[in-house]
């Protein structure tokens, strides 16, 4: 193999979870690796394992606390000193903090999280994107989250950081449209890693329904390689969140998401009448979105002309469903019946 032409991927947060799985995928495809986190020993073990298994030329380890001032610049300088060109940047390192913002969570932890999840990610993106644009080549994967597009009570600051990552990434998608450089946002739902334990949320209901980190990494990797702008890994239920997030009232979304973050075994229905109605709307929308998404997926096998027609029809159905569902005084059964009727009559016409 000509080692001059081998590409290099820099992955922050490669010591565990999704980042570790992403590192394995890059190694499998023959990429040289720069693995970054605070856990030097774990990173070194992974580097040795991947070098041996995939006979990659170079896998270097850099110990860096990216929640510290200037950490991104230091990392960039260290990589530069070693004469490495980064072809793919994966901003994976991130943490969460669980609890009521006003009374329970610790500001030191939250400000370190903001630094890690947003500031260092932005600075690394700035440093490497400049080089990639100059070469007119390169790829970036930013770890957003499903909570990038929904409020997440009891993880309020974390959700804020992920909303930032998503919006930042999508804005850059537009700025990069006339180049060969791509940037992709990965929006996993709750995933089976060490994340919830470290966030102090190991007892939250959400930990009973976790996605597989290997699946999340594989879907993220595929989207990155194709230069897609975003990906929500997993089945239809996960993907339907995007539609729900656009259609449901914010209070309904927040009520639904809060239930996920409350302790396992806590009552599911201790909501006010208004919240119950909003939740009913949210659940109704989940079903409508699933149906709509399934139909849309089926239709993507059609000709461009038919796709355009049906996209328009689905948009119209969504708007009608939104109008119907915005009337939160309706019962769940009425809401569902109306929405289903809208979707079926659109398809029948
Ligand atoms: N798990 C989920 O449900 C989920 C859902 C959506 C999005 N995400 C996002 O996915 C990313 C990866 O999380 P994960 O689920 O794989 O969790 P994880 O297993 O806890 O991995 C987090 C990674 O970030 C690194 N990290 C943490 N603090 C760091 C710091 N100060 N400096 C440098 N590296 C640091 C950790 O390494 P060290 O501890 O060795 O430093 C570790 O490699 C995060 O951005 C997270 O927000 C996770």
Strand content: 5-15%
User: What is the C-alpha radius of gyration, as a whole number of Å?
Assistant: 22 Å
Highest CATH level, the class of the largest domain = Alpha Beta
Oligomer: single chain
**Mean pLDDT over the full residue set:** 86
Distance between the termini: 58 Å
β-strand number = 7
How many strands, which pairing sense, and closed or not: the largest β-sheet?
Answer: 7 strands, parallel
Please give the domain count. Answer: 2
Strand order, main sheet: write it out: 3-2-1-4-5-6-7
* Proper CATH architecture of the largest domain: 3-Layer(aba) Sandwich
Give the H and E element order.
EHEHEHEHEHEHHEHHHHH
Report the bound ligands by name, code or SMILES: NADP nicotinamide-adenine-dinucleotide phosphate
Structural class by helix and strand composition: alpha/beta
In the CATH hierarchy, the third-tier topology of the largest domain is known as: Rossmann fold
Task: Please give the count of helices.
Answer: 12
What would you say this structure looks like, in words?
The protein has about 350 residues and is α/β, with parallel strands linked by helices. It folds into two domains: about 230 residues, Rossmann fold (3-Layer(aba) Sandwich), CATH 3.40.50.720; about 110 residues, no CATH class. Helix content is about 55%, strand content about 10%. A seven-stranded parallel sheet has the order 3-2-1-4-5-6-7, with helices on both faces. The chain is globular, with a radius of gyration of 22 Å. Bound molecules: NADP nicotinamide-adenine-dinucleotide phosphate (NAP). NADP nicotinamide-adenine-dinucleotide phosphate binds next to helix 1 and helix 6.
């Amino acid at each position: 193999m000509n080692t001059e032409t081998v590409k290099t991927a820099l992955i922050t947060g490669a010591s565990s979870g999704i980042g570790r799985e992403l590192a394995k995928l890059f190694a499998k495809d023959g990429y040289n690796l720069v693995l970054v986190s605070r856990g030097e020993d774990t990173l070194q073990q992974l580097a040795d394992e991947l070098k041996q298994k995939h006979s990659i030329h170079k896998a270097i380890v850099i110990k860096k606390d990216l929640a510290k001032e200037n950490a991104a610049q230091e990392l960039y300088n260290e990589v530069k000193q070693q004469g490495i060109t980064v072809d793919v940047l994966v901003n994976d390192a991130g943490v969460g903090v669980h609890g009521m913002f006003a009374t329970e969570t610790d500001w030191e932890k939250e400000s370190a999280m903001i630094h890690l999840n947003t500031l260092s990610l932005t600075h690394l993106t700035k440093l490497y994107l400049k080089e990639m644009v100059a070469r007119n080549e390169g790829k970036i994967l930013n770890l957003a989250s499903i909570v990038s597009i929904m409020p997440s009570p009891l993880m309020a600051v974390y959700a804020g950081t992920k909303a930032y990552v998503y919006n930042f990434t999508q804005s850059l998608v537009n700025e990069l449209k006339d180049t060969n450089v791509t940037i992709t946002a990965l929006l996993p739902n709750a995933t089976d890693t060490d994340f919830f334990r470290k966030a102090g949320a190991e007892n939250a209901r959400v930990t009973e329904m976790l996605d597989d980190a290997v699946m999340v990494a594989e879907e993220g990797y595929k989207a990155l390689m194709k230069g897609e702008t975003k990906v929500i890994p997993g089945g239809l239920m996960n993907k339907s969140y995007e539609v729900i997030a656009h259609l449901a009232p914010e209070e309904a979304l927040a009520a639904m998401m809060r239930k996920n973050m409350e302790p396992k075994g806590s009552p599911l229905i201790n909501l006010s009448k208004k919240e119950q109605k909003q939740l009913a709307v949210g659940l109704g929308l989940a079903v409508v979105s699933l149906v709509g998404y399934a139909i849309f997926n089926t239709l993507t096998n059609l000709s461009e002309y038919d796709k355009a027609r049906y996209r328009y029809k689905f948009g119209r159905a969504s708007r009608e469903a939104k109008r119907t569902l915005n009337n939160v005084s309706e019962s769940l059964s009425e809401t569902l019946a109306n929405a289903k009727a809208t979707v079926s009559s659109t398809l029948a016409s």
